Structure formats: structure tokens, C-alpha cells
Amino acid sequence: MSLPSPSSPFSLGIVGAGQFAGQFAKLWRLHPGVGAILATDLLPERAEKLVAECDLDGTVPSFEAMLASDVDAVGIFTQRWTHGPLVVQALRAGKHVYSAVPMAVSEEEIAAIIEAVRETGLTYMMGETSQYNPATVYARDQVAAGAFGRIFHAEGDYVHDMDLGFYDAYRYSGGEGWKATASYPPLLYPTHSVGGVLGAWRTHAVSVSAIGVRDERGDGVFDKDVSQFDNDFSNATALFEVAGGGSFRINEFRRVGYPSHIRESRFRFFGTEGSLEQLATVSVWQDKEGVQDVTDHLRPKPTLSPDDPSLAHVSPALRDAFTSGSAPVHDRSRLPAEFANVTNGHEGSHHFLADDFVRAVATGTLPPVNAWVAARYTLPGIVAHASALKGGERLPIPDFGDAPGAPGVSEG
After folding, report:
1. Which helix (H) or strand (E) holds 36?
2. What is d(CA 100, CA 92) in angstroms, rounded to the nearest whole number?
3. Please, are residues 47 and 59 in contact by the beta-carbon 8 Å criterion?
4. Where does a domain end: 129, 152, 175?
5. DSSP one-letter string for 59-98
6. How far is 325 from 9, CA to CA, in rounded Å?
7. Sequential pLDDT tens for the chain (412 residues)
């Protein structure tokens, strides 16, 4: 594998050594574009474990120490509501940044990231897995071929029940007070649904009306008296108006009778000439002549058993998300040979995201999910949550525009 513009390997710091970080640390350890890798975590033993498991180069005692070190870039895998300020701090310290989703939790935090990227010229990338979800890749290809005609409506669902892994994940990350953070508002974690839609459809949201469903489980999660976020919505639905005409709808469900371990993100696209629809185990392309089953074309092939020892640090209920390989729709020709037969995840997206970041840093080019695209994947959910709190009032969604000098980059 050769990068578009040869460059020396860059050094990288992993910030947050939880269940997700190891999947990317392993890939960057193998990538020929990455050199030394360090790790840090608020719990030092977790950083030490990550270093041992992924053969990294050592630990540093804190985030501040990581920024004071000579690493060229950082990958931020901390709690989802902490990303915005940490990203800005890292960019201002002269580090390229890969951030787990979401980008941030407020319009102000998003604006601060975009300003920092603009002023520093450094790489920022949000690691949205739906950018390479097989359905999004297929829809993106069909858009390029003109097969949809004009898309006028799309739907994205992130349907992940709390009982299927999230209780374990929040206990792991939240410690004794985990219930306070397990109530994280569904619409503030919108990028798996919004990103899958907009990763194929070249548009952006301009307004939204949303409805939240108040939780009735009574287990102390999604309880305003307990919630750090004053939130009691466990499920939410938002309908967006898009630039150029049309709409898309997202569902963010945390209490739902659905097998999210089979497919947690699913999509539908409707155009004047063709459409794509997904259920948990089926994907179909339809036009005015008939229906084509594309399930096998979009189904990732497993690379590891969920019982593989390399997944020992991942909660059992979440292991399916980390064991998939690539689907036939994925074009792996651009990936480094070192990634062949290595654990992938989230329907084949991890390899592409890890490589996107390395290429962007090495060449000084914009990654597909750059700061401006990340804003369009994240801010609609933030405004949607505000709409739900106002009983579904339709609210405008600010837009930060296209990335400078990169028309169409949002198509990936």
C-alpha cells in the first residue's frame, strides 16, 4: 500500500482506553503510516492493559501530558459528552485529531472545533461508522450512477436496546454513578442514523420537528432525578427538512424489541426512479420494474468468532459489533495489506475509518468526515433534542457550510 503522497509515519496518542479504543489502536499499530503509539486513561491500569494487548509503545499519565508530549496526533475515545472541549484543546496544542462520535453536544462546541481547524490547518476527523455502513456505501454508489433519480426522502434508524449491551457499557465507563450518564439523550447521539443518510445523499438538514418518548422502565435510568443530563427520553423520532427539497426521518431507540446485535443501524432511501430498504436481516433494491435482493452484497463476512481471545475486553453483548469483516460492496483495494484478515467492526467500517485518518494526516487533505461534514451529522440531532423538549416545535438548523475548497466532500 502506498499513500497518495509519501510521508514519514506519524506518532499517535490514544486518549481513553475503553472498549472501543482497542479496535482502532490495533489497526493503527498495523498501519504503515503510523509510528509510535502511546495511551492514557483516567484509570492508569486500563491504559497499561491497552498497551500490553495492542503492543503499543507506552503510557502517559494524563491528557495534558499527552498534549505536552511530541506525538503528532491524538485519537479521542472518551465519554461521548466530553469530546468537544478535548478536541479544541488538542488542536490548539498542535495535534491532529481523530474523535469518536459525537462531534460535540452543543452548537457552540461545534463552532469552536471548526474555528480551531480553520485557524490551525490541522486534520480533524470524526469516526462515524455509518459513513462506511454497507447500505450507505451502496446508496452512495447508486446516487453516483443516477439510479435513484431524485431522492426526496430517506430514513435512518439507530435501534440499540439498553438490554443488549448498553447497561454493561455504561457500568464499565461510568463506575458507581453509571446511571447518571446512562440517561444520555438519544438525539444527542445522532450520527449513526443521520450520518448514514447524509453519507449517501448530498444535502443537509435545515429544520426539524422531533418527539421524545419518556421512559417507563423505572430502573433509575432515564430518570430526571438521577440523570446528569436532566433527561427522561429513552426513545425519540425526528423529521428533518433538507436543503433543495425533501425530508429524512431518524429513529434513536434505546428501549425497543429488536435484535440490535444483528443490525443496529439500518437505512431507507426513496427516489423518483429507485429505492433501497433494510430490515434486520434483509436489504432490497427496488425500481418500477421489480425488486432485487441485495442482502448478500451488503452482508459483511465474519473475520473472528465473538469468543476470540482478542475481544476479551469487550462486553459479550457488544462483541458482534467488533467481529464483522467487509461486505462485497466495500472496495478494499485502497486499504493497507496489513489489514487483511484483521478484526473489523460495525459492518466493516473500522478499516476504512482508520485508513481515512492516516491518509488525511499524511497528505494534508480533508478526510471524508471532516469538521464541516461532522457538524452536519451532529448538529441536527442537537437541535432535534431541543425540539423534542418543546413538544415537537419545528426549529431551524444552523449550517456551517461546506469545507473550504472541498465541494462534495460530504459524499465520502
Report:
1. strand 34-40
2. 18
3. yes
4. 129
5. B-S-HHHHHHS--SEEEE-S-GGGHHHHHHHHHHTT-EEE
6. 26
7. 334 344 689 999 999 998 889 999 999 999 999 999 999 999 999 999 999 999 999 999 999 999 999 999 999 999 999 999 999 999 999 999 999 999 999 999 999 999 999 999 999 999 999 999 999 999 999 999 999 999 999 999 999 999 998 899 999 888 999 999 999 999 999 999 999 999 999 999 999 999 999 999 999 999 999 999 999 999 999 999 999 999 999 999 999 999 999 999 999 999 999 999 999 999 999 999 999 999 999 999 876 555 555 555 555 555 555 557 899 999 999 999 999 989 899 999 999 999 999 999 999 999 999 999 999 999 999 999 999 999 999 999 999 999 998 654 333 3
| C-alpha distances in Å from residue 274, one per residue of 71, 298, 303 | 48, 17, 33
Residues 282 and 305 in one domain: yes
Q: Which of 369, 330, 312, 357 is nearest to 19 (CA)?
A: 312
CA-to-CA distance for 16 and 76, rounded, in angstroms? Answer: 6
Q: What is the rounded CA–CA span in Å between residue 308 and residue 300?
A: 18
> Cα–chain-centroid distance for residue 362?
22
Q: Is residue 4 part of a domain?
A: no
d(Cα 374, Cα 199) in Å, to the nearest integer? Answer: 10
Query: Can you give the residue range of the structural domain that contains 83?
Result: 10-129
- Let me know whether 294 and 190 are in one domain: yes
Residues 176 and 278 in one domain: yes
Calpha distance 174→220 (Å, rounded): 14
Report the C-alpha gap between 145 and 270 in whole angstroms. 15
Query: 148: which 3 cell numbers?
Result: 435513484
**Measured between alpha carbons, how far is 33 from 357 in angstroms, rounded to an integer?**
10
> In which residue are the cell numbers 453536544 written?
105
Question: What is the full DSSP assignment across 189-244?
Answer: S-HHHHHHHHTTS---EEEEEEEEEE----SSSS-TTT-TT---EEEEEEEEEETT
